[in-house]
Amino acid sequence: MRDDDFRPRLGKVRADGQKMVKSFRNRVLQAAGLAGGLHKRGGRFQGSRIGRGAGIGHVLAGRDRWTGWRTRRVVVKARLVKLAGRNLKGAQLHLRYIQRDGVTREGQPGQLYDAQADRADGKAFLERSNGDRHQFRFIVAAEDATQYEDLKEFTRRLMRQMEQDLGTKLDWVAVDHFNTGHPHSHVILRGRDDRGEDMVIAREYIAKGLRERAQEIVTLDLGPRTDIEIEDRLRQEVGQERFTSLDRGLLREAGDGRMVSIGLSQDGDHARFQQSLKAGRLQMLKRLGLAEETQPGIWRLSSSLEVTLRRMGERGDIVKTMHRAMTEKGIGHAAGDYAIYDPTDPQAKPVVGLVLRLGLSDEINDRHFMVIDGIDGRSHYVEIGKLDRQEAMAEDNIVAVAARPIGPSQADRTIAEIAAAHEGRYSADLHRQHDPSARPAFIASHIRRLEAVRRATGTVVRDADGIWAIAIDHLDKAAAYEAGRAKDSPVEVKVLSSLPLEKLTGIEAETWLDHSLVNADPAGIRDAGFGKSVQKALQQRRQWLIAQGLAEEQAGQVVYRAGLLNVLRRQELARVAGQLSQELGLAYVEASRGERVEGIYRRSVMLASGRMAVIAKTREFTLVPWRPVMERQLGKFVAGVLHGDQINWSIGRSRGPAIG
What we know:
The protein is α+β, with helices and mostly antiparallel strands. The chain folds into 7 domains: 1-35, no CATH class; 54-222, 2-Layer Sandwich (BirA Bifunctional Protein, domain 2); 228-303, Arc Repressor Mutant, subunit A (Orthogonal Bundle), CATH 1.10.10; 313-390, no CATH class; 410-488, Arc Repressor Mutant, subunit A, CATH 1.10.10; 499-561, no CATH class; 566-651, no CATH class. It has a 6-stranded mixed sheet with strand order 10-13-12-11-14-18. A 6-stranded mixed sheet has the order 21-24-23-22-25-26, with helices on one face. It has a 4-stranded antiparallel sheet with strand order 3-4-6-5, with helices on both faces. A hairpin with a 2-residue loop joins strand 22 (596-607) and strand 23 (610-616). Helix 11 crosses helix 13 (440-457). The radius of gyration is 32 Å and the shape is globular. The termini are far apart.
């Protein structure tokens, strides 16, 4: 043993070293906790001080709220998006969307910029981001942003300040939007620091610190808020049907007892002004049923005050969006004809109508909405959730919207039934034994279902022999999987027509009008709004069919030719196929039901009856129903079997996983 090798033992002579170490460590942890170093809330470690900017974030978040009374207000929304193990398709779509048409003051597409240039290369930014574990997305909206002629310099100063706070250079791009009443900037920040390592930003800095920095810059640029500005904004809040700063102050004063007092009139203009604001707001809350005066000057606030007011504010914003969309299209509706579609309502009926607006309801989380002029004569707001395939629908499309089914599918029940009879195992061979009449494509759809559940939840396991281990609670897991999908996309949207209604009345093709006529399904069509236009179009389409010999009047009723829809579909296919044949220099071959189709997926074409995929071989091509998932296979070899208006695809020349 060397003389300089020793082990220190903390504590007094002859004391138990292990106990002293624990005691010393506990005292350090206790002191750190008292100093706010571990940031414990409710006795539980939150991790809010981990990452870059933890110290400055804590300082900025701790500023006294009264010192910021005159500070210009800025709203900052932040989201961390995981990229590791995935492609950059989502990031690419987000970049494309924030640069969409109509977001500038002049109605032009948004322009991407960065720290150095007013025109940044989005493709190069995505290439640099390839391999990043995550990225940060921010929306920065200053309350007084309308006073800025250009937001670029403000955003650059904010990001330079962020670099100083985090101690690293930042790689970011941004786009400014002026298409709403509140101009704002979208900032996308790579999740890598200047050393190429994963960048972790302290939660407190993201939640509060960045907002404080933005408010500092705006206040420095425009000056502190004046008494007149503050008083004007507070007066506006008195009658608003949304959660306001006045309500926040009332709840703070009321505490758990939910009681507030107007108090006696005090000396000073400011005190009297505050008293009048409180009294006016309480009267407004009384009219809304959210407050009651128990005795003169003493009020009880409703326990649901904040939740109700926030919901009312959201509804008010939705109605404004709907009204704006109707006004831009020159369509008028009475106030009572606005409806918000609730997919969780079991009584909710599908909505059919014309898409007036397709936009973002939550820009930071990429959640979309539709405003639909329905055939029922009402204007509908529909939250459609995440939309990864914007090309599948657009404004002026005619669509049908229905709630996404939640719960196990019939395929899940079949899988569980087969597994229960075979000791928790499922495979294609076991399925054939269970149901000898099942076709290969039908069995393949069950395999695809298991693959989807496995990728999303990891709750089912497949071995190398293609045998699946199915748990006893498989149906519960399948239901949980569907519930998760419903959060991302609460509704299913089917595009009925991408053509204007007036073009459908005399087109030689299968249309959704024909389906309504053949099925005698005019229910729900009101003689108002889009419903009135549909009634007129149905009458014109009926007369066109009679003129073409595809229908005739008998005893006051219209009788349609047998197989009418199939006849119209084949006529359109023949016409479009002839045009494509000249364009491609290939012969057209019609695909038959049950036939195997294979070739290179060349492109898609939009027909009145729906979108079709062009599958080409060396000397010929065919047209089959298109699916959004096919866009990933553009220019690749695909193969599948046609079943009615659907086709089950497989990737590559060899047998492989179907793509549905």
